[in-house]
Known about the structure:
Order of helices and strands: HHEHHHHEEHEEHEHHHEEEEEEEEH
Shape: elongated
Number of domains: 3
Helix content: 40-55%
Number of helices: 12
Strand order of the largest sheet: 5-10-11-12-13
Largest sheet: 5 strands, antiparallel
Number of strands: 14
Structural class: alpha+beta
Strand content: 15-25%
Radius of gyration: 27 Å
Amino acid sequence: MKNKHLTVFNELHDQLLNYPRDTLWDKYLQIIVNEQLRKIEYSDEGFEPEKMSRQQIYAKAKKIDEKRVDSQTAKNAVKTSKLELTLAAFIDDQPDCKRAFIDLGYQPIIVTSASGGGSKNKTLIWMDIEVIESEDVAQEQIDESSVVESDEELEDTEDVSSIIYERKATSDIKLSLLVRLFFKKGELKMLSVSGISLMLLLMLSALLDIVIVIYSILVLLLLSDLPSFKLWQAMVFVVFIPFAYLNWRYFLMPLQSLPRHRVIKAPMFFANINADNTDIEMYRNKDKLNIARITEFTAVCPICSGVIELANGKPDQKQPLVGRCKEAPHAHVYSFDRMTMKGYFLSIKDYSVNNVLGL
């Protein structure tokens, strides 16, 4: 007899891959179902769930060591009520997914163990299946569940007007070879030998850009007076102008603004080629010396649970950097305050917090 749990979990796993959404809650679901499948794969007996703590789920989603996850942080980040709503919404929003579970006669559900309180009594989360009943009965159960709050952590309507940013540890950032040459453990003291060397290198790079542009322009202007100089040779020099511009615009200019803005997006060659989001922050240590460090500021979008990353404020915002949701970068936009690590919803034309709340 075919294992019903294995069939249902495999279907959910495939649907999550077929309809990927880059949100933290979808990552939680993927982690939970993967653990259930792994447990079934290595078990010869009936279904025995793989129960996970909030810290385990959060650590796997963030790809960090579980021991570094504070229990309160994990509790605030992994809410079982939101997991249940996310799973139900995912199934309802994907017609193919909903039809597949109807054909199977079963659907996945989130199950939790009741915590008795105390630091040692952790709430455990896993996934199980239930029979899909008739639409009328299911609707009645939904109506009842909306009145009775079974989960003690079920809170009031989530406030979408503000967010809390997280600063990623430098040790968790994949650094490029250039950064590893100058930054020790992801940090650089600006008045150190490495800091001064890097600044001299940047000044030399800027000077080289200027020389390339001036020389290329002079070659074009004096081409008629240079009989031994052919057109294709002149074009070779002209090609260097775009490279000089790119180096000035996307490498030198951002670094030049770091002391003034205190946080910038890491320019090219600073982050590992596999890293799609890296920031540089400048702060003062106890000796009042400027130190630059490689980090990453992120938050969870309260509107769609997508990942919010720092991005350029232009053209729709005045601030140099704002938090933009990866799933809706022009609609879900928040301010960024490095000192308080908070951000507030930035209203856009015809789109405000009231629109989000449906008021």
